[in-house]
């Protein structure tokens, strides 16, 4: 750790951490010994129980809290490590986090071994499979981008199933051959004793691409969505294959002989494991969606349902030896659209944050434990076996990917290029799942297998993990572009869907558009009615999406307090009818009088459009799928966000000033009303209602002349701060004229004041498909 | 018939035969296809942009003869011509062929939106076709003002991607603009040439369903 703290600025922190670490470890050790000492004291004390013991002022009872205490220590360590890494800027760019964490694990393991001569068995398979793995998978499954996943499902399945099978048999078979060939050379352990079945078992363990490792590495390199979803999807779906192969070979090893019937049963078992897992997950997902329909009165525990049902899905699948990972993914993916339509915005945020937090901590812990367990385990280093394994794994992966791509490209429209293939092959990282499965082995050759597995894991994570980023740069692989989810994109996606479905109908060909359409309509007609509360099920998705965009934008605008000259640019749907660059009106015109617009319709359109243009430019909603970036939440009180917004506002000001200079009728400059309006500062806006002679832009949020402005800012109660609520049905009537100007003023004020704690209204969170 | 040759060269006669069979199926006893034939297809009835799709088949602009207006009835060549807009690029198509293909497809889409045939899509047309009809199926409804708001926002998005001096003119979208926005600025992932295709070219007779 001393080598890391090169920059003098940050030198103190890692050293501090090291100190803290050592202290914690030693404390642990001393506490334990103290406890042992005190317990012996008590025993001797009880021997002569005639003498009265003084009241123990201070006692140490470590045993009762030992387990939670240690767990907390580990989690704390993991989090501090994470903190530390990101404080050292250059390091995190070069070395992926997973490598650093494994190194830390190695270090900690080493320290513990020195201090206490034994290492706690932290990476027991139960802890791993039951506690550490589910959060990561749930996080991945819940936020899985469904559209690319489903579009590429054929390719993903091919890679996951056929690719993994190929890898398993290739590695298993050839390593057996190598062992047989090498059996004379070594006397330590007779490699020739390793039968074909253990070899195949070993092959099946080591061939699976690991989702944790893939996630950890890939999310730092930001490659394009297609490659990301291919490798990641493969790593998720190959769990079914791994589970089946593992159990299959284990059974065979017990029973000793394999018959053709067993092979067929194996195939059947694969289908059961995969489909069963998905069904279990879907079942729990639907339950969760249904439950969330009724939670409108108990918003606080909504996230709990999501987590619990998902975890139950995982556990239930594990009970029946089905694929827990697939069940978890299915549960998350199925429940998400319905749950998100039902729960409140805050619950949604909570779920998002908790999932990210847990998965992040889990990932960190897994890598650290991997390091610790490496130090602990009994290893048997056999050069031939290990190098052979390594080479075979790499070769198998490359051949598998190339071969499969060759076949798959015949069926794909967007073909996979050589570069893509390289990245897919290179991204086949192994990780902790392989290690845990290896831990569960009962063969005689467990040691050598474990060592080989660890070596492969280390190699893939360190070497491949570190070099993949420069390679991606070198090969100029398409990176992920930040897709601003624009309205046009949404419109055109849907338009195309309908168009292509129509063409398919005309051709009489029931292609996948046709079935997708059918599924959508079934969904809309029946499923949504059951699973989504209230009348929200009827709201067309695009409307919801649009409202969401508008609202986020509106919140952001209001939160940043508005620029000094931004009185005129309120949420885009405000009608500009009543701006007063009216030449004819004398400056002494009563502001209460609603001035009719003198702008021509075309000019007004232009103004509105220009303002909106500029407003729209400030919308930056990142919708790219990245695990650890949380989208800037307008509800957050980020100070630097605020500054960013301020800066944007100033840009906006400047632009609007330019535009208005062009646009505003030049003779309006003479009107003191207008100029005062333009100069109006924030404080001016906080005007008592009804004050006369104040230059104010009367924003009429809806007026008869502008039937096309939508009231998005709805006032709920007069005395609260600005609360946003969406019109729950798209046909909400806008108020026609006849509003008091007083209320206008009030609205103006409220628009500029802080939103305050919004009432816990229901909000829609549509999921763009 | 030059265009047909282009189309033909990339598909097999088998597939053209299938399409021909389908054409005859749709026509019934007659030799040419009319609008009523297409409207009688039951599965098409639920499609919100049914009228536009049907119109597209009879639209002269999609036949690449630079005429305007629409046919009353079309023969197999015209049918094939419209269908050719939907073929996918193969691995052998070069970059310029892909660009040309994209242009054709985008042009097709443009023609679908531009209902009055003046070469520009106005806000009204966009709103009507793109949003009101394009997005919502029959069970959904959309308020006038919301539709207009969405159309506004969409148009402005288009405008905002351009140089500021275009902003003033965006009450209509010309073909140039439409083409421009079909490329990476707004429709980022929608690579038209890859998205807009139908796998009818893979179908065989077994898949042909009776459309009536």
Automatic annotation (TrEMBL), chain B:
Keywords: Calcium, Cell membrane, Cell projection, Cytoplasm, Differentiation, Lipoprotein, Membrane, Metal-binding, Myristate, Nucleus, Protein kinase inhibitor. It is found in: Cell projection, Lamellipodium; Cell projection, Ruffle membrane; Cytoplasm; Membrane. One of its GO terms (cellular component) is cytoplasm. One of its GO terms (biological process) is cell differentiation. It holds the Pfam family EF-hand_6. Coiled coil: none annotated. GO terms for molecular function: calcium ion binding; protein kinase inhibitor activity. It is a lipid-anchor. Its main location: other. Residues 101-136 form the EF-hand domain. PANTHER family: CALCINEURIN B HOMOLOGOUS PROTEIN 3 (PTHR46823). Belongs to the calcineurin regulatory subunit family. CHP subfamily. This is Calcineurin B homologous protein 3.
């Amino acid at each position: 750790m001393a080598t890391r703290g090169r920059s003098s600025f940050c030198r103190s922190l890692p050293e501090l951490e090291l100190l803290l670490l050592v202290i914690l470890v030693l404390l642990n050790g001393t506490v334990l010994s103290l406890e042992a000492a005190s317990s012996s004291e008590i025993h001797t004390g009880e021997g002569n129980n005639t003498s009265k013991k003084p009241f123990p002022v201070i006692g140490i009872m470590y045993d009762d809290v030992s387990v939670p205490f240690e767990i907390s220590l580990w989690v704390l360590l993991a989090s501090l490590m994470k903190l530390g890494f990101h404080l050292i800027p250059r390091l995190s760019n070069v070395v992926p986090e997973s490598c650093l964490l494994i190194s830390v694990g190695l270090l900690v393991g080493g320290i513990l071994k020195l201090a206490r001569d034994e290492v706690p068995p932290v990476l027991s398979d139960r802890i791993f499979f039951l506690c550490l793995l589910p959060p990561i998978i749930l996080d991945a499954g819940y936020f899985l981008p469904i559209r690319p996943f489903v579009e590429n499902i054929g390719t993903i399945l091919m890679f996951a199933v056929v690719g993994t099978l190929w890898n398993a048999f290739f590695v298993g078979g050839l390593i057996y051959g190598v062992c047989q060939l090498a059996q004379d050379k070594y006397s330590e352990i007779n490699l020739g004793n390793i039968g074909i079945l253990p070899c195949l078992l070993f092959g099946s363990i080591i061939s699976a691409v690991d989702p944790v490792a893939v996630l950890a590495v890939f999310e730092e390199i930001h490659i394009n969505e297609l490659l990301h979803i291919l490798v990641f999807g493969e790593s998720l779906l190959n769990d079914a294959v791994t589970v089946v192969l593992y159990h299959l070979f284990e059974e065979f090893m017990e029973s000793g002989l394999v018959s053709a019937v067993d092979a067929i049963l194996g195939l059947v078992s694969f289908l059961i494991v995969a489909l069963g897992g998905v069904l279990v997950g879907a079942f729990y997902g639907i339950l969760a969606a249904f439950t969330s329909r009724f939670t409108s009165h108990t918003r606080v525990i909504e996230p709990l349902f999501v987590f619990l049902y998902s975890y139950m899905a995982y556990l239930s699948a594990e009970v029946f030896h089905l694929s827990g990972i697939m069940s978890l993914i299915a549960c998350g993916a199925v429940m998400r659209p319905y749950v998100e339509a039902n729960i409140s915005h805050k619950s949604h945020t909570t779920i998002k944050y908790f999932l990210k937090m847990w998965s992040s901590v889990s990932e960190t812990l897994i890598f650290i434990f991997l390091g610790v367990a490496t130090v602990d385990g009994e290893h048997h280093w056999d050069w031939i076996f290990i190098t052979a394994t390594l080479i075979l794994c790499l070769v198998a992966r490359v051949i598998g990917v190339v071969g499969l791509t060759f076949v798959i490209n015949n069926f794909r429209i967007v073909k996979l290029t050589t570069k893509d293939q390289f990245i897919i092959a290179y991204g086949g990282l192994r990780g902790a799942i392989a290690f845990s499965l290896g831990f569960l082995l009962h063969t005689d050759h467990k040691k050598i297998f474990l060592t080989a597995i660890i070596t492969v894991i280390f190699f893939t994570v360190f070497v491949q993990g570190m070099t993949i980023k420069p390679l991606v740069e070198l090969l100029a692989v398409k990176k992920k572009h930040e897709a601003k989810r624009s309205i046009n994109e949404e419109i055109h996606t849907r338009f195309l869907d309908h168009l292509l479905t129509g063409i398919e109908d005309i051709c009489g060909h029931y292609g996948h558009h046709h079935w997708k359409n059918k599924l959508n309509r079934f969904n809309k007609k029946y499923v949504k009615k059951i699973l989504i509360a209230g009348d929200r099920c009827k709201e067309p998705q695009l409307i919801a999406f649009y409202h969401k965009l508008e609202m986020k934008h509106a919140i952001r605008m209001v939160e940043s307090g508005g620029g000094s000259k931004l009185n005129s640019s309120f949420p885009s749907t405000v009608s500009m009818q009543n701006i007063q660059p009216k030449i004819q009106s004398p400056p002494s015109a009563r502001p209460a009088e609603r001035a009719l617009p003198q702008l021509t319709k075309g000019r007004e359109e232009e103004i509105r459009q220009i303002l909106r243009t500029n407003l729209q430019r400030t919308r930056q909603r990142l919708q790219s799928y990245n695990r650890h970036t949380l989208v800037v939440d307008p509800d957050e009180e980020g100070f630097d966000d605020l500054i960013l917004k301020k800066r944007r506002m100033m840009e906006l000001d400047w632009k609007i000033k330019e535009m208005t200079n062009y646009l505003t009728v030049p003779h309006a400059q003479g009107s003191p009303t207008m100029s005062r309006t333009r100069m109006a500062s924030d404080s001016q806006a906080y005007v008592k209602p009804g004050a006369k002679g104040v230059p104010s832009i009367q924003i009429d949020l809806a007026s008869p002349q502008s039937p096309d402005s939508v009231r998005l800012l709805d006032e709920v109660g007069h005395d609260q701060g600005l609360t946003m609520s969406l019109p729950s049905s798209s046909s909400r009537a806008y108020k026609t004229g006849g509003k008091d100007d007083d209320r206008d003023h009030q609205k103006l004020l409220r628009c500029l004041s802080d939103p305050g704690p919004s009432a816990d209204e229901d909000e829609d969170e549509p999921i763009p498909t | 018939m030059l265009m047909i040759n282009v189309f033909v060269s990339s598909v097999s006669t088998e597939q053209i035969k299938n399409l021909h069979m389908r054409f005859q199926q749709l026509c019934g006893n007659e030799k040419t296809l009319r609008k009523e034939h297409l409207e009688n297809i039951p599965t098409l009835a639920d499609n919100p942009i049914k009228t536009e799709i049907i119109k597209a088949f009879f639209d002269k602009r999609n036949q690449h003869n630079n005429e305007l207006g629409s046919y009353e009835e079309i023969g197999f060549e015209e049918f094939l011509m419209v269908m050719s807009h939907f073929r996918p690029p193969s691995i052998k198509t070069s970059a310029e062929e892909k660009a040309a293909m994209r242009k054709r497809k985008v042009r097709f889409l443009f023609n679908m939106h531009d209902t009055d045939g003046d070469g520009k899509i106005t806000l009204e047309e966009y709103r009507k076709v793109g949003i009101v009809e394009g997005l919502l199926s029959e069970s959904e409804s959309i308020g006038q003002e919301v539709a207009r708001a969405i159309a506004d926002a969409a148009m402005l998005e288009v405008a905002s991607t351009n140089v500021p001096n275009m902003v003033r003119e965006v009450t209509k979208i010309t073909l140039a603009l439409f083409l421009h926005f079909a490329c990476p600025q707004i429709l980022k992932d929608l690579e038209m040439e890859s998205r807009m295709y139908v796998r009818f070219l893979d179908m065989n007779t077994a898949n042909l369903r009776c459309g009536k």
